Amino acid sequence: MTLLHSWRAVLNCHPTLIKKRVASSKTSSMSRSASRSDSNPVRARKAAVLMRAKAAGLFGLARKRSAGALRILCYHGVWLADDGFAGDSMFMGAETFRRRLAIIRRNGYPVVPLADAIAALAGAGPALPPASVVITIDDGWWSTFHSMLPALTANGMPATLYCDTAQLMGRQPIAHVMARYLEIVAAHRADHNATAVDNAGVDAARIEAALGRARDLTAPMEARIAGCRDLAAALGIDPTPYHDARAFDYMSPDNLAAAHHEGLDVQLHTHRHTLGDMSPAFVAREIADNRRALSDILGRAPETFRHFCYPSGVASPAAANVLGGLALASSTTTRQGLAWPGMPMHLLPRLLDGENMSEIEFEAELSGFGDWLRGARETVQRLRGGPRDPLSPSSLRRGGHGNIPVSDPARG
Ligand SMILES: [Zn+2]
User: Fold this and answer.
1) Residue 89 alpha carbon to ligand 1 centre in Å
2) Deepest in the core among 189, 192, 263, 388, taking most CB within 10 A?
């Protein structure tokens, strides 16, 4: 059995890895090559359709029809490790991010501060220029500080960082994310016939045990990071490049304060990156702790933090009602769509960008054509008697989101 075959055997018999491997296969096919032409036939067809739609003037038409809607872009971090993996929906290439900003600039989309945009959306502030864009970044990755903020500054574009503070103050790599990406990278290498796989380390039981230690939220962070080291060894991956690149580190509180001093808008993302059971008490405690920590780090009064982003992509109308009572002006989700006037201010959708999105898809989303396509697809599904998505942008525009919790934990 070759090295690669033994690897695939483990991946194929390991339930967690099967799931990750599927995700990674999608990810890898959508990686850096996707930004160019794309070798995946389905995605290549989609790109061709979008190119034709753009050439036919449909992007321009969509932009006019959605001029009053806000494009709230959502980013996370940059993939800094030089290991052949290009990134995915969460981490994107630094060059991809710079090219996105160039597309926004080249196409004349005005980038406005979140606070101004929310005031306008709520009818409480001056109207915005047509087709305005807001740039938001979740979490507080070192790579955001290292690569995204300089690119934004160079373009003179305002941005908001939704920052969870317990991880920021912990000054340790984020173990559960590291564990997830070690699996993704391992599957990516297997898919790409990489040779740097240690056959002797392939041991499903050891992988399972190491994953369990890395993901044990009740264990001290040192023990969880030790679990990541063991996972890397079990997967045959040298963790040194990730450590050196600070791939799974948050920025420091000092970094955050410096970025804020340079003009970065910093807002709320909970203290512990969770809303727990979404009970009013849990939600209120997370917002209060997050406000207090940001206040200490940035030297601003706690009540001046008035915008929130749900962590882990989990949102619900019930939580939105609680957030509305906490002196917050807006809350954003990871639902894909434009934010229209009249939508609930604590369930605002965003446009999730990542390495898995090609440039033509990004242009389609910016123009509003992507939103139009999703709305049309939803209408067809509804006519066929399919289930209604209460938090889809078209449901939110109609005010029909009801009171049904909906989660989208893929990102956030
Ligand atoms: Zn987050």
Assistant:
1) 13
2) 189
Q: Within the chain, which residue ranges are assigned CATH 3.20.20.370?
A: 31-171+249-407
Closest CA to 39 of 54, 28, 53: 28
Tens of pLDDT along 151-162? 999 999 999 999
Distance 27 CA to ligand 1 centre (A): 19
Write the CA distances from 396 to 302, 336, 399, integer angstroms.
30, 12, 5
**Cβ atoms of residues 368 and 336 within 8 Å:** no
pLDDT, tens digit, 9 for 90 and up, residues 11-24? 333 434 433 433 44
Question: Quick check: 228 pLDDT over 60?
Answer: yes
d(Cα 97, Cα 87) in Å, to the nearest integer? 11
Cα-only R_g, the chain: 21
- Residue 136 Cα to ligand 1 middle (Å): 11
Domain 31-171+249-407: CATH superfamily is: Glycoside hydrolase/deacetylase (3.20.20.370)
Task: Give the pLDDT confidence score for residue 325 in this predicted structure.
Answer: 95
CB 366 within 8 A of CB 50: no
- CA 112 from chain center: how many Å? 20
| pLDDT band at residue 202 using 50, 70 and 90 as cut-offs | low
CA of 11 to the centre of ligand 1 (A): 28
pTM: 0.86
CA of 198 to the centre of ligand 1 (A): 33
The Å distance, Cα 225 to ligand 1 centre, comes to 19
